[in-house]
Backbone:
């Protein structure tokens, strides 16, 4: 059989994709890389080397925001993994009808934007007269500054973010659990395995790929988060909840930072994402630990 | 007996979790009908003592306030942009997924790598330079700048490719023997079989456009208030909530939730199937 028989029609089908990717991804990416290494002035182009990168890495506000978003992302992703996994296990066991209804309903928050979610949660967390503080006062407690407190501010970002992703995580985990062949559990039951043993020796190892998929996609999303922090805390208190993208947006509107610096900072965010995600693949995907392989 | 109790507790726990998820939305609904003074007042009551629809009617007159925006026109424009984007993006990404899954052509692997590599590029990295590109193309302040740059998505092409890879080779061969071209093969055989992924991916494209905030704020200036997207409007209202009242912000938020709710009702049947599809990968 001849190879490459479909050349003409395949290229016709791919023209829109290729043109759009080059125009709106590859050209901007090349421009971004170029701008972070070269400086264009009316007199000509000058090679700057790593000068802009060094400037960005030594920018304490930006670096602090990177640590902030890493802490937030890790907390969010781990919590989401654990609670969704437990919930998905419950969904497999409960009454069929309840399971179907629950799986449908929990997906809804996933469709709502971060801005809308934050506006809804503000109703609960407002300092003067928010629902939580009103209820606290009714039982004699003192109000909490959810948007300006070292302990509560991170939480008022973490909880709405988990709220958005919980349903999607649970659905993916549910799909993972029901795709495990039933015979594995039956065999384990014959050998007298307990509930926890089945979970740690069958369910979790069999779902490794689902965990990796969820973590890798969420790292990309969470490291760029800014909508919920922008509305809930706006970086307060003392910039401890300022995420990198929010920092860049703020600095750009204040005129504190040049477009070149923003681009360089954003390239650093990309590098961090690539490093984290490749480490995850390297650590978990190729590991041939006997105990974890079925 | 003990086992039955355990199951009942688990059932109740699931009901409780689902209820907790809906609690914030449920709490928002009565608050929309409270007046400006009651909404953040102590002590808190679930239901409004002075029932009012002012929060909604105020949205009609935003054009005559200092904000000078038209909430409902923005809703319409945003829905229009998202709908056009769904049609265009589905056509482009589906046919690309089909070509990568079913056709043999020169440079296939190189092009596939070129598509996949874009998954590793975060939006923020190319944000500023993308604005430069659309400025150079003269697209700023037009409806096209909201639609065109986000049409191609490596995730969606990947999804459709995986879906089309799942069909037996004999389908193509039979169609070719009957003299079908590749376009006819796609149009008459693969397209009609793609309803489930079309609904799922279509919904996610719609929500992506409907919920977008950052890109429209950078590419639409104050001169084109008629093109303002709904998330930007909500952000503006939120910043201005001391003047227009938080009740109106909630009312606007609630109205903006109608399209996602409709999408949710359409897709819910397909969600389970879709997750099963994702499981094939």
Residues:
């Amino acid at each position: 059989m001849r190879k490459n028989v479909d050349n003409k029609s395949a290229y016709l089908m791919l023209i829109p994709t290729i043109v759009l990717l080059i125009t709106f991804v590859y050209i901007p990416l090349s421009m971004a890389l170029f701008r972070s290494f070269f400086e264009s002035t009316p007199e000509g182009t000058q090679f700057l080397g790593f000068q802009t990168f060094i400037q960005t890495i030594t920018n304490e506000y930006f670096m602090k925001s990177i640590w902030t978003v890493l802490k937030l992302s890790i907390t969010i992703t781990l919590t989401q993994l654990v609670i969704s996994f437990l919930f998905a296990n419950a969904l497999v066991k409960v009454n069929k009808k309840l399971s179907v209804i629950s799986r449908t309903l929990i997906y809804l928050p996933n469709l709502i934007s971060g801005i809308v979610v934050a506006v809804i949660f503000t109703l609960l967390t407002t300092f003067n007269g928010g629902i939580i503080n009103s209820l606290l006062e009714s039982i004699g407690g003192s109000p909490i500054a959810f948007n300006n407190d070292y302990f509560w501010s991170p939480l008022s970002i973490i909880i709405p973010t988990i709220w958005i992703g919980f349903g999607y995580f649970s659905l993916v985990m549910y799909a993972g659990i029901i795709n495990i062949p039933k015979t594995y559990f039956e065999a384990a039951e014959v050998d007298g395995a307990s509930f926890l043993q089945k979970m740690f020796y069958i369910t979790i190892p069999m779902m490794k790929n689902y965990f990796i998929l969820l973590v890798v996609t969420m790292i990309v999303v969470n490291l760029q988060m800014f909508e919920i922090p922008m509305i809930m805390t706006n970086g307060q208190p003392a910039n401890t909840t300022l995420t990198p993208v929010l920092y860049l947006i703020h600095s750009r509107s204040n005129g504190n930072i040049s477009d070149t610096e923003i681009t360089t900072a954003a390239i650093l965010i990309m590098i961090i994402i690539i490093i984290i995600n490749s480490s995850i693949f390297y650590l978990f995907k190729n590991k041939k630990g006997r105990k974890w392989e079925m | 007996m003990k086992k039955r109790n355990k199951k009942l507790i688990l059932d109740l726990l699931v009901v409780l979790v689902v209820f907790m998820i809906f609690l914030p939305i449920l709490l928002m609904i009565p608050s929309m009908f409270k007046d400006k003074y009651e909404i953040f007042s102590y002590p808190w009551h679930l239901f409004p003592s002075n029932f009012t629809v002012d929060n909604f009617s105020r949205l009609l007159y935003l054009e005559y306030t200092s904000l000078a925006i038209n909430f409902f026109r923005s809703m319409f424009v945003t829905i229009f942009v998202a709908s056009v984007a769904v049609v265009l993006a589905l056509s482009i990404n589906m046919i690309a997924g089909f070509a990568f899954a079913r056709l043999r052509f020169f440079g296939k692997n190189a092009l596939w790598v070129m598509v996949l590599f874009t998954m590793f590029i975060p939006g923020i990295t190319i944000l500023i330079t993308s604005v430069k590109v659309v400025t150079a193309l003269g697209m700023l302040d037009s409806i096209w700048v909201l639609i065109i740059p986000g049409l191609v998505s490596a995730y969606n092409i990947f999804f459709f490719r995986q879906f089309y890879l799942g069909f037996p080779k004999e389908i193509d061969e039979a169609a070719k023997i009957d003299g079908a071209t590749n376009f006819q093969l796609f149009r008459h055989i693969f397209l009609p079989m793609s309803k489930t992924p079309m609904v799922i991916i279509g919904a996610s494209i719609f929500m992506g456009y409907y919920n977008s905030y950052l890109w429209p704020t950078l590419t639409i200036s104050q001169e084109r208030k008629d093109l303002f997207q709904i998330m930007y409007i909500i952000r503006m209202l939120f910043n201005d909530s001391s003047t227009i009242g938080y009740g109106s912000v909630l009312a606007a938020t609630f109205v903006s939730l109608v399209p996602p709710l409709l999408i949710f009702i359409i897709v819910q049947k397909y969600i389970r199937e879709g997750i099963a599809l994702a499981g094939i990968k």
Summary: Chain A has two domains: 1-49, 60-284.
